[in-house]
Write a structure and sequence with these properties.
single chain; 142 residues; alpha+beta; 6-stranded antiparallel beta sheet; two-stranded antiparallel ribbon; 32% helix; globular
Length: 142
C-alpha cells in the first residue's frame, strides 16, 4: 500500500478552506434574516406624553419633532367630516364588499400625500419622508 501522509501545506489549505466556508455561511445567515428579525419601525407619538393616536413612523431626512408637527396639522385638518370628504372617497364598493379608499388630495401643506397598503398615509418631500398612523386618521371604507 502506498499511503502518503498529508503535508503541512495541505493541512493549512484545508483549514483555510474550512474557515472561509464557515465565514461565508455566517455571512449568508446574517444577510438572509427572517422578516421577524427585521428592524421594527421607529414610531413617535406626536402628542407625548398623551397617547392620542397621532404617530409619525420612520421619519427620514426630517426630525421626529418636525414630522409630528405635520402629523398634528393633518389631524386638525381631518377633525371635520367635510375635510375627510375632501381628502378621500371610497370606490369599488359592492353589496358584499366594501370599497377601497382613493385619495382626492395628493398634497397637504406642501407635502406629497399617498396611501400605501390602501389605508396608511405616506408623506414625502424631496429627501424627506415619513408614514402617518394612529386612531386619528380614519381612512375607512367599511
Amino acid at each position: 500500500m502506498n499511503m502518503h501522509a498529508p503535508t503541512n501545506t495541505a493541512i493549512k489549505s484545508l483549514a483555510a478552506a474550512a474557515a472561509l466556508a464557515a465565514v461565508a455561511l455566517l455571512a449568508f445567515l446574517a444577510l438572509s434574516g427572517s422578516p421577524a428579525a427585521a428592524a421594527k419601525p421607529k414610531v413617535y407619538e406626536c402628542q407625548h406624553p398623551l397617547i392620542t393616536g397621532q404617530e409619525a413612523i420612520n421619519p427620514k431626512g426630517i426630525s421626529p419633532k418636525a414630522a409630528c408637527k405635520v402629523v398634528r396639522e393633518l389631524g386638525a385638518f381631518l377633525s371635520t367630516n367635510a375635510h375627510i370628504e375632501e381628502l378621500y372617497e371610497c370606490v369599488g364598493a359592492t353589496p358584499k364588499k366594501p370599497g377601497r379608499p382613493k385619495l382626492l388630495m395628493t398634497e397637504f401643506n406642501g407635502w406629497k400625500l399617498k396611501l400605501v397598503k390602501e389605508y396608511n398615509f405616506y408623506m414625502t418631500k424631496p429627501g424627506q419622508s415619513f408614514r402617518v398612523a394612529g386612531q386619528d386618521f380614519p381612512v375607512n371604507c367599511s
